[in-house]
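ENTRY TYPE: paired fold submission
RECORD: A
CONTENT: sequence, then structure tokens
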Amino acid sequence: MRIPAPDQHTQNMANFPIGTVVKLKSGGPKMTVKEEVKRLPGNFVCTWFENGKVGTGTFSETTLERFEEGTATSTLSKGPAAVKAELS
């Protein structure tokens, strides 16, 4: 396993600092970046609320984008399970 240069971690965190509100590029709920996975640079642990429950998952930065108010689409109110069901 290749260990990234120290500045790679800094660059990844600059893209999605802890507390940044993000969403999957493919849709889904708003999520908050909780931390970067130190063993897997460029992967972030995110949390979200769905049906009154907290969800947590790890996502590659290539699948995430910053959430911006006013750009919401109908898929943003749907959770990952609903989006997956639509794709099936």
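RECORD: B
CONTENT: sequence, then structure tokens
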Amino acid sequence: MKEEIKKVGMLLSLVLLMISLASATICNMQTIIIYGNVYQEGTSNPVADATVIATCTHYGVNSTHTGTSTSDGRYRILFDKRKCDYGDKVVVNSVKYGTSSGNAG
């Protein structure tokens, strides 16, 4: 059993993650929501429990927040509108098993 888990872990460590383009939505005019999905590279297979890091550049100042993808690969990260606003540059990266991938929007 441990051998199988180790093999699966090693296999998953080779899988590169892809993140759908980050999307921003205004919520209550005070919060910006960055959301998307984490997939295995080249597939539509969702990746659960990936650490997702979003960095927003607002008036030249970077603000970073993190989240975790759900069992269906979805993530949602909230920013205070004073630190990230609609139209700002957002870069999103994900990490799982030491492998990372990212996208900007």
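NOTES ON RECORD B: The first helix runs from residue 2 to 13. DSSP finds one helix and eight strands in the chain.
STATUS: closed
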